[in-house]
Amino acid sequence: MVVHCFLVSKNGQKNQAKDHYFMMISTLHRMGIPGNCCYQAMQMLWLSTQEKFWLLRMVKLFTRRPASVQRALSVLEMEVEQIHKGNHEHYMQKEIHEQPESLTTTMRGRLIRGGTCKAKTVLLGGLKDHLKTIRRSWRIVFIGCGTSYNAALAARPILEKLSGILVTMEIASDLLDRQGPMYREDTAVFVSQSGETADTLHALEYALQNAALCVGITNTVGSAIARKTHCGVHINAGAEIGVASTKAYTSQIVVMAMLALAIGGDAISNQARREAIIDCLFDLPNKVRDMLKLDQEMKDLAKLLIAEQSLLMFGRGYNYATALERSLKVKEVALMHSEGILAGEMKHGPLALVDESLPIVVIATRDACFSKQQSVIQQLHARKGRLIVMCSSGDATAVSRQKYSGSAKTWHKGSLKCQKLQKVHLSATFQKKWIT
């Protein structure tokens, strides 16, 4: 493949050959055709654009005395069935329904349930040589863009509680614009589904220049982030063809939760909590399967929102990242304005937008922030906002009958605009309601 491309370039058709072979290699990767693919050739075609160096950068063939060059071949371990849509309408829908299997694959061989004599633990082979260094870090910095950033934000509270280490978040482009401080004592975790995100790669180069320990979390073996970081973890979510990330997002959260378990594994005081988290992770694929049974109900709910111009998402605590990611998906897929808002900031601007024409999604799961979210629901309802409340199983009645401040009016079943819907989010079962 490489030699043929070289001969074509000598005939004065360099650009056409470059475009043609880039497309062919990309198609092999996308289609998952079994066989060998020279990774160096991919780098050669991507990076070099100069007159006599576009073929010389990775393989030295453009010389006065050409000689044979041997390069390692990378076998694509992918079945053709992985890229077929099957009975689904599009790839994104297919990948949403693949989440139970992708989560199981992500955890396979890494979560150890233990037995009567063995403790429950996590084994991350890609980090074992650097785990002690990470535990001694002064700060852990998560760096990513878009969905990857939201996944890191969702995992941050778990890492903070289990490790006791300061955890900060950085959007890759913003870190570069600010030239934010990065130290030798820091551990920088770079999250990217493709492993080739341009801003994240530039931030990685910046962190390496500042001698920080760099950890990669990616879904692509042999990607730039996987090669350039000191250590890392592959999420093993499988090929993701849809533009909007779905199964990779949930797998990223699980991998970072396992990272938190591994870093905090030397703390005896957190042993019971770690084992409880491991048990929940084992049960997570079944919870997702229950949620995926609501496909038709979600379509019915979407019909109520299809004509809207804007949608607000309120979350708090662990659910703030979920609100941001939902908002991002609405923008990417529905091409509709949406904003994920931290519920604690509702009074500082967002409340002024609420009226009887604005649909609002509020996440109120049974956690440490539940009572605060009830207060948020009361205030939004007082402004006559059209609410879709997502709460834990058993809390729907309590939420719907909650009185709002200054009035004895209650929310009752007769005021619901759509039927009760069930949804599972991690370890909780939600009920969705449209409150008018």
What does this structure look like?
This protein has 436 residues and is of the alpha/beta class. It has helices at residues 2-10, 14-31, 39-47, 91-97, 99-107, 131-135, 146-163, 172-178, 198-209, 224-228, 247-263, 271-292, 295-305, 319-334, 370-382, 396-400; strands spanning 36-37, 74-75, 111-112, 121-122, 139-144, 166-171, 186-192, 213-218, 231-234, 310-315, 337-342, 359-364, 386-392, 421-425, 428-435. The protein has three domains: 2-82; 91-291, Glucose-6-phosphate isomerase like protein, domain 1 (Rossmann fold); 295-435, Glucose-6-phosphate isomerase like protein, domain 1 (Rossmann fold). Helices cover 42% and strands 17% of the residues. Helix 14 links the parallel strand 10 and strand 11. Helix 1 (2-10) packs antiparallel against helix 2 (14-31), helix 5 (99-107) runs parallel beside helix 11 and helix 5 (99-107) runs antiparallel to helix 12. The N and C termini lie far apart (63 Å). This is SIS domain-containing protein. Residues 130-269, 301-436 form the SIS domain.
The biggest sheet, with number of strands, parallel, antiparallel or mixed sense and barrel status, is:
6 strands, mixed
**Helix count, DSSP H or I runs of 4 or more residues:** 16
Radius of gyration: 25 Å
The total beta strand count reads 15
- Strand order, sheet with most strands: 11-10-12-13-15-14
Fourth-level CATH superfamily of the largest domain:
Glucose-6-phosphate isomerase like protein, domain 1
Per CATH, what is the topology of the largest domain?
Answer: Rossmann fold
How many structurally independent domains?
Answer: 3
Helical proportion? 40-55%
End-to-end separation in angstroms reads 63 Å
Strand content is 15-25%
**Spans with pLDDT under 50 lasting ≥5 residues?**
1-64, 403-436
Overall, the morphology is globular
Mean pLDDT: 77
Q: Which CATH class of the largest domain applies here?
A: Alpha Beta
Q: Any guess at the CATH architecture of the largest domain?
A: 3-Layer(aba) Sandwich
The secondary-structure class comes to alpha/beta
